[in-house]
Design a protein that fits this description.
Elements lengths: L11 H7 L17 E2 L14 E6 L9 E3 L2 E9 L25 E9 L5 E10 L17 E2 L3 E5 L5 E5 L4 E5 L17 E3 L2 E6 L5 E7 L5 E7 L9 E4 L4 E5 L5 E4 L6 E5 L11 E3 L2 E5 L10 E4 L5 E2 L12 E5 L10 E3 L2 E6 L3 E6 L5 E7 L11 E3 L2 E5 L4 E6 L6 E6 L9 E3 L2 E5 L3 E5 L2
Parallel strand pairs: 1-28, 18-22
Antiparallel strand pairs: 2-34, 3-4, 4-5, 5-6, 7-8, 8-9, 9-10, 11-12, 12-13, 13-14, 15-16, 16-17, 17-18, 19-20, 20-21, 21-23, 24-25, 25-26, 26-27, 28-29, 29-30, 30-31, 32-33, 33-34
């Protein structure tokens, strides 16, 4: 049974440190960035009038997912001094590029809410300034999901810097991530990750891509590794290979693995899509990397074995090697990241289809199944309790039974635009919509 938070905020930090339950959802895609939980009895049905524990207004605009540690929910947002600049257009379309930054001052906020009630414990500005870069009309200035170790909360705002707060809302340090020029002016979205005493941030851009690692406590730069890459929007995966850990990055030039302790390159592989967003996933000694820009014929899925070195790119026409367990030319998603449940890899396509592959072999388990008429997806699916939760842009969450046959269990409507991926903790779903944060469940 989860400890209830003590009344005095003086004890928030202590509580967060001492309740490191497995049910925490500490960063992008939760535990180990897999997008799944071992929790049981997750909610199945809800609507705007039923099954919602609480709803809390979030000012401004942000596509960052909520994160959860103990009885605290953390979320970031960007609040414009002129709401008319918060332009947004959902859906699937070409265009939407904006070639100048929004012409207003923004307050970049980190917020902490109570997981039981939705009460705002604190809301602290990281910085107030005019944006440094443009953004796609579908993007926001707070699209990077924060990450926490229960003591500190790390929030990246891309071109506006990386910020470290303690769990009581005190700003500990901040660091510039350099100048950003993004492809087509689309803006940023890569979330930070934690490894031992480091917070690691991938900065893929047109003007000098780099991976940066900072000391969690002090913000001191520990290592920096340049990347021969252009813009990407994929948050990396820390892959536990047993005797070592690999930092897996996904980008259009090369898929790569680095040693997260020192930034040294371990291996690289060509063959990704021309625009890359999904985060890799892993299972049973394999790391699976995918990309699928809708304008490309090449929309691949790769399954890599750990321990490789050097260039492991497949020769043309080959689909496996000593280091590549399997490879598909077509099947990867454009924006949503895949999720693995049991033996199966589930891929959510942004046009509203769910597909399923055997994660060990790449063989098709089932083909495209439509989730809803005209449904469009930016949020990544999450899984738990034998179910897969797929949240559409129009706020409908489709619940699918995990297994070898497609079975839609429920379709739950919130009647609010949803771009952020859900979080799952303590038997509840936390869904960040355009203007509100919802807690679904008991």
């Amino acid at each position: 049974m989860r400890m209830r938070v003590l009344a005095s905020l003086f004890f928030v930090g202590l509580l967060s440190v001492t309740t490191a339950q497995a049910g925490n959802w500490p960063g992008w895609r939760g535990q180990a960035a897999q997008g799944r939980t071992d929790e049981k009895s997750l909610p199945v049905t809800w609507s705007t009038g039923e099954g919602i524990r609480w709803k809390a207004a979030i000012p401004g605009v942000g596509h960052a997912s909520p994160i959860v540690w103990g009885n605290r929910v953390f979320v970031t947002t960007a609040v414009s001094a002129d709401e008319s600049t918060e332009t947004f257009k959902p859906g699937l379309y070409f265009g939407g590029n904006q070639f100048k930054p929004d012409a207003a001052e923004y307050t970049y906020l980190v917020m902490c809410l109570d997981a039981d009630s939705g009460k705002v414990h604190w809301s602290k500005p990281a910085v107030k300034k005019n944006p440094s870069i443009p953004r796609h009309i579908k993007n926001s200035y707070a699209s990077e999901t924060p990450v926490t170790d229960g003591k500190l909360v790390f929030a990246s705002f891309g071109a506006e810097g990386l910020y470290c707060f303690d769990v009581n809302g005190k700003l500990k340090w901040n660091r510039s991530l350099g100048d950003f020029k993004l492809r087509y002016g689309w803006g940023t979205a890569i979330s930070p990750v934690l490894y031992e005493n480091l917070v690691i941030q991938v900065c893929d851009r047109e003007n000098g891509s780099v991976v940066l690692a900072f000391d969690k406590q002090t913000g001191t730069r520990v290592w920096e590794t340049p990347r021969d890459e252009k813009s990407s929007w994929s948050t990396p995966l820390l892959f536990d290979a047993g005797d070592h850990t690999e930092l897996i990055t996904n980008a259009s030039g090369r898929m790569r693995a680095y040693n997260p302790a020192d930034g040294n390159l371990l291996w690289e592989c060509a063959g990704a899509s021309s625009i890359v967003s999904p985060t890799p996933v892993s299972t049973d000694g394999l790391v699976i990397v995918s990309s699928g820009y809708v304008g490309d014929k090449n929309r691949p899925i790769y399954a890599f074995r750990p321990g490789a070195t050097g260039d492991i790119s497949l020769p043309e026409g080959k689909h496996h090697s000593d280091t590549v367990a399997w490879h598909l030319n077509v099947g990867g998603p454009y924006i949503p990241s895949p999720v693995i449940v049991g033996p199966n890899l589930y891929v959510l396509l942004d046009r509203g289809f769910l597909t399923c592959f055997n994660a060990a072999t790449g063989e098709s388990v089932y083909g495209k199944n439509r989730l809803g008429r005209r449904s469009q997806f930016t949020a990544s699916p999450v899984a738990g309790d034998g179910k897969i939760y797929c949240l559409s842009e129009d706020g409908t969450c489709y619940v699918v039974q995990a297994g070898s046959a497609f079975k839609l269990i429920a379709a739950n409507e919130l009647d609010e635009i949803c771009m952020a991926s859900p979080a799952v903790a303590d038997g509840r779903l936390f869904i960040r919509a355009r203007k509100n944060l919802y807690c679904i469940g008991p």
